[in-house]
Design a protein that fits this description.
Blueprint (H helix, E strand, L loop, with lengths): L34 H4 L7 H9 L1 H8 L2 H8 L4 H28 L3 H28 L9 H16 L2 H22 L10 H7 L2 H17 L5 H25 L2
Keywords: Thiamine biosynthesis
Pathway: Cofactor biosynthesis; thiamine diphosphate biosynthesis
InterPro entries: Haem_Oase-like_multi-hlx, Thiaminase-2/PQQC, Thiamine_Salvage_TenA
């Protein structure tokens, strides 16, 4: 697993050693925040599509992971899923905080509104986890695992110290990966699968649309984070941490 801080400059520093700042004028293509949605089915577009393409090895590793395949078949041990739900709830709380910081740093109202919608989506996910907790007896406030700490530490480090372009680069992989996993598994999940709700949630067009909105922010504001070369390490680190999270869930419970 890559170090949770790789791909970052010092606190509050951009690629040249100074603070992250938006470009002096509005970036071209203000509609880029909607670009992914307009592709249909929430497909990635622009730079986000290229970053996703560059990380297909990790996307495939997550799809083929025994934890994810156990969800697809419905035979994942219940104890492993319960562990995952608790750790994921802890992770999502930090994800929500990162969105809140992004709202505060948004350079304009359009970007602020996009992050607000995305924050609402995370709160909806947390409600889903509360449902799992009630049905499965999962605790939603466990001691964070090493994998959870690494991932949340990475996200909050970026959210506190960087601008919206870097924040979007660090957060997009989670959204795009889960949309990919849900859609990939949707046709393979039998009606009686105990994890069907999980797959349907992440395989829904609504979730793909949320992922595309975040990708739109990345496409529009990556210039303030050093352009493609500046955001690529953040994206890669997040993908590595996603795989490590599944590894931890598989070996727990």
């Amino acid at each position: 697993m890559m170090n949770g801080r790789s791909g970052q400059e010092g606190k509050g520093q951009g690629p040249g050693g100074g603070p992250d700042r938006p470009p002096s004028g509005p970036p071209s293509g203000r509609q880029q925040e909607r670009a992914g949605v307009e592709q249909g089915a929430g497909e990635p577009a622009g730079l986000a599509a290229e970053l996703w393409r560059q990380n297909q090895d990790l996307a495939a590793a997550c799809l083929d992971h025994p934890f994810v395949q156990g969800i697809a078949r419905g035979d994942l041990p219940r104890s492993k899923f319960i562990w995952y739900v608790g750790q994921d709830a802890t992770y999502l709380e930090s994800f929500a905080r990162a969105y809140a910081l992004a709202i505060a740093k948004a350079p304009d109202r359009e970007t602020m509104a996009t992050f607000h919608r995305l924050l609402e989506g995370v709160l909806q996910e947390l409600r889903l986890h509360h449902g799992y907790a009630a049905r499965w007896g999962a605790g939603l406030h466990p001691e964070p695992s090493l994998a959870t700490r690494a991932y949340t530490g990475f996200l909050l480090d970026v959210a506190w110290s960087r601008g919206v372009g870097a924040i979007a680069a660090a957060m997009t992989p989670c959204m795009r990966l889960y949309a990919f996993l849900g859609r990939s598994l949707l046709d393979r999940v039998a009606p009686g699968n105990p994890y069907r709700e999980w797959v349907e949630t992440y395989g829904s067009p609504d979730f793909a649309a949320l992922a595309a909105q975040l990708e739109g922010v990345l496409n529009r504001w990556h210039g303030e984070a050093g352009g493609p070369a500046g955001v690529a390490p953040l994206y890669r680190t997040a993908m590595e941490l996603e795989r490590a999270f599944f590894d931890a869930a598989w070996h727990a419970g």
